Amino acid sequence: MNHEQKKGLVYMTTATVRKWGNSLAVRIPQEVSELVKFTDGVEIEMYVTENKEVLLRTAVPTADDQESLRKHFLSLRAKCKPDMVAHEEMFADPMGDEII
């Protein structure tokens, strides 16, 4: 990897790819999992770059990752159409602060 490709990356450790049933597996060391907030059972997305590098990230942000939650919310909101209505709006009467 040249210097430009390392920009923004933090070297942590190495790991070995092992056979696991009909698949291959990589064990993620504790120091890495703590840094990226991976926990047992977390769903992740895998991306492969043009350079055949693998990028892993959580599919749904963790509750304490406010910036990722905000981006996730905005991406979901962008998929909404103006005429879409939440099921609560269709069946529930207004109550509390939402009454205008």
UniProtKB/TrEMBL annotation:
Any Pfam family hit: MazE_antitoxin
A molecular-function term among this protein's GO annotations: DNA binding
UniProt-recorded name of the protein: Uncharacterized protein
Originating species: Paenibacillus baekrokdamisoli
The organism's place on the tree of life at top rank: Bacteria
Cross-referenced InterPro entries: SpoVT-AbrB_dom (IPR007159), SpoVT-AbrB_sf (IPR037914)
Record SMART domains: SpoVT_AbrB (SM00966)
Gene3D superfamilies in the record: 2.10.260.10
